[in-house]
Design goal:
3-stranded antiparallel sheet; alpha+beta; 9 strands
């Protein structure tokens, strides 16, 4: 039997001993086949301590386990999970039927995707488009607006315009960053043999901000380089896919200005008479679970080393690195030079 972990205890009707009593809800890793593919997921079940044959599930647990397996499949194929689909429509205050009408789908389609069916890639792309870009949502509403009563159509449009005002700049920054990395669309020594992963970058920034109450732009950009370089030195690929340039204040990612406007980056601009400072804070709403154990270990190592470094300390440290000494200003720093990193 696979090793399991206790989640909680509940009182329920137990079919094992036919009494109402306290049982354990436990979880373990399990596997099943979805669309001909084996997937691993977290399976929940109940345990009755009154019997040797003590394991059982309810219909509700079976449904939840099936959803967990389907979401594991979705994640493996870079598709929105059921919860993320719910988030798309809630972002615009839509019901399941309204979201289906907006996208020109059958009225039951969204309900099926949120409960049991797995969307195909084309439908997933449409969901991503309207989640990431409110302007695309408005265009869909203009196309399919005749499916709504006028008051409702105007209500939905108003909500979309609010979203456009709220994070339109963030969307443009994300697209600008993606555009800056078109030239790095293949794995190479300049991106650490990894393609750009913006979600990972957002997680890393929030994770670093948790480790330091005074995380500013110069510190952050150089800590990103050290994390990517150390990870590359250990595992032969970078964490983020960022390409770094030799700049006067250290190793800065190409497109670093766009990083400050990403949706999940919590940054406050502090201005005085002499300069503008970008102060980074944790994003408590961001799920950093996609950071692996190895990635967290590297981030912890870098944070512990540089937690109390000032801007000038970072500049001095970077200038001691072979990667900095053997490149000229504005040169892209090859990841292969990370093999000679001196700080660790």
């Amino acid at each position: 039997m696979a090793k399991s972990a206790l989640i909680k205890t509940v009182h329920t009707d137990c079919p094992i001993c036919n009494t109402f009593h306290q049982v354990e809800e436990r979880a373990r890793m399990s596997s099943t086949t979805i669309k001909g593919e084996k997937v691993f997921y977290e399976e929940h079940f109940y345990v009755c301590r009154n019997s040797s044959s003590n394991e059982f599930k309810t219909d509700a647990l079976d449904d939840a386990n099936l959803m967990s397996a389907r979401n594991a499949y979705r994640k493996a194929h870079n598709l929105f999970t059921s919860d993320e689909i719910v988030a798309v429509r809630e972002n615009y205050g839509l019901t399941q039927v309204e979201l289906a009408k907006l996208l020109g789908w059958g009225e039951a389609t969204v309900a099926r995707y949120e409960s049991k069916a797995i969307q195909d890639e084309a439908y997933d792309t449409m969901l991503r488009l309207i989640m990431e870009n409110p302007l695309m949502a408005i265009q869909f509403l203009d196309k399919n607006g005749d499916k709504f009563q006028e008051p409702k159509r105007m209500q939905i449009r108003t909500k979309m315009i609010e979203k456009l005002d709220t994070y339109g700049k963030e969307y443009l920054s994300r697209q600008t960053l993606i555009s800056a990395y078109v030239k790095f669309s293949m794995p190479s020594d300049y991106n650490g043999y990894k393609l750009l992963d913006i979600n990972k970058i957002e997680c890393m920034i929030s994770y670093y901000a948790e480790q330091s109450t005074d995380l500013y732009k110069v510190q952050l950009m150089n800590m990103l380089w050290y994390a990517d370089a150390l990870f590359y030195k250990t595992y032969s690929n970078s964490m983020t896919g960022l390409a770094y340039r030799h700049e006067p204040m250290g190793a800065f990612p190409i497109g670093h200005q766009s990083l400050t406007h990403l949706k999940n980056v919590n940054v406050q601009i502090e201005e005085d008479y002499e300069s503008t400072k970008y102060h980074f804070y944790p994003n408590t709403l961001l799920d950093t679970s996609e950071l692996s154990k190895n990635e967290r270990a590297v981030l912890d190592t870098v944070a512990a080393k540089f937690r109390n470094y000032s801007t000038s300390d970072f500049v001095d440290s970077i200038q001691e690195e072979i990667a900095f000494q053997q490149t000229n200003q504005n040169d892209i720093i090859p990841y292969s030079m990370a093999k000679k990193i001196r700080a660790f």
